[in-house]
From TrEMBL:
InterPro entries in UniProt: Isoprenoid_synthase_dom_sf, Trichodiene_synth
Protein name as it appears in the record: Linalool synthase
Keyword Lyase: yes
Family the UniProt entry places it in: Belongs to the trichodiene synthase family.
GO molecular function, one term: carbon-oxygen lyase activity, acting on phosphates
Domain of life: Eukaryota
Alphabetical keyword list: Lyase
């Protein structure tokens, strides 16, 4: 895992960036690196179907949320939550997919809530630990949802889902309160530390392994760090285009750029190599277990499909179709 922090990995692939004096594009390098990553990931669309019942239920759920939530946020939540559950977790049951979609909706809401009610985000974990009611109705919904995790996932998986959620909400609060913090050049491990806390890696990885798949985690325990690294890194790569368009700098690539005293394009280039290396390791680790290998491949292709389908990533602008 720590290899992701090395800025000078060997064997880095350098795709050609076509920029001319007449048509300079400040995002040309980003576009080329994203295309390079997708091409080398050997993406093959699983063609995951739209789950109409899932969308009906989530629409009904969101209609009961507070009326002061912006319609644009509701639309963003609806699209992201449903597409994520339909693609990345297409192998799970409808009950699991609805849990994942609603969970995703709640966390997307929390990410927005920090702009309006930071104290509610700050106190979520302490209130959850004490069994106290969450004054914000969506945070209360999230707390209730976590209480059902053990019904759908194994003891180990559900524990990781709950612990990872509490870590993430706490890290979201830290991100909101440290936006002006300058990352010191020597703090090269900090960007990945914060990313693993805020990125919701453990919950979304453990969602893959339903409670009736295998009762205990011994057979897949060693692949979890690589799945998490691949997932977080892939998100960082494929979301970077829309973040650059929006002028966002409070993300993993830019934090790492500051820590390593490098350029964003150079960090992104090395990140592509590191994530592809994790994918290769996953292939090796699962090669002796056909069921686990199939599950990994379905997850990987489904996650890439999600990234291309979700409107917020704007990857259709680069000519990609899910």
């Amino acid at each position: 895992m720590l290899a992701t922090l090395s800025p000078f990995a060997s064997g880095v692939h350098y795709p050609v960036v076509p920029i001319t004096e007449e048509t300079k594009d400040p995002l040309a390098a980003v576009k080329v690196l994203i295309r390079d990553f997708l091409d080398r990931s050997d993406y093959r669309s699983p063609g995951s179907p739209c789950d109409q019942e899932l969308r009906r239920k989530l629409t009904e759920e969101l209609s009961a949320w507070p009326s002061d939530i912006k319609p644009t946020l509701v639309a963003k939540i609806m699209d992201g939550s449903c597409v994520y559950a339909e693609t990345t977790y297409a192998h799970t049951t409808h009950e699991h997919r609805y849990f994942i979609a609603l969970y995703t909706a709640c966390l997307m809401y929390v990410d927005d809530l920090g702009e309006r009610n930071l104290d509610a985000v700050k106190r979520f974990t302490s209130r959850f630990a004490k069994g106290e009611h969450q004054p914000d109705p969506i945070l209360q919904r999230l707390a209730e949802l976590l209480g059902r995790a053990h019904d759908l996932w194994t003891q180990f998986g559900a524990d990781a889902i709950i612990a990872g959620t509490l870590d993430a909400v706490t890290a979201m609060y830290i991100e909101f309160t440290t936006q002006g913090m300058v990352v010191k050049p020597s703090a090269t491990r900090f960007p990945y530390y914060l990313r693993t806390r805020a990125g919701l890696g453990p919950p979304y990885i453990h969602f893959v392994f339903m409670n009736d798949w295998r009762a205990t985690p011994e057979s897949y325990l060693q692949v979890l760090p690589y799945m998490e690294h691949w997932t977080l890194g892939t998100n960082d790569i494929l979301s970077f285009y829309k973040e650059e368009l929006a002028g966002e700098t409070n993300n993993y690539v830019h934090l790492r750029t500051s820590a390593e005293q490098s350029s964003a394009a150079n960090v992104l280039r090395h990140l592509v190599e590191e994530v592809l290396e994790s994918a290769g390791t996953m292939d090796m680790l699962t090669s002796g277990d056909s069921e686990l290998a199939a599950l990994w491949q379905r997850y990987m292709q489904g996650y890439l499909e999600f990234s291309l389908k979700a409107k917020r990533y704007r990857l259709a602008e680069l000519g990609y179709q899910p």
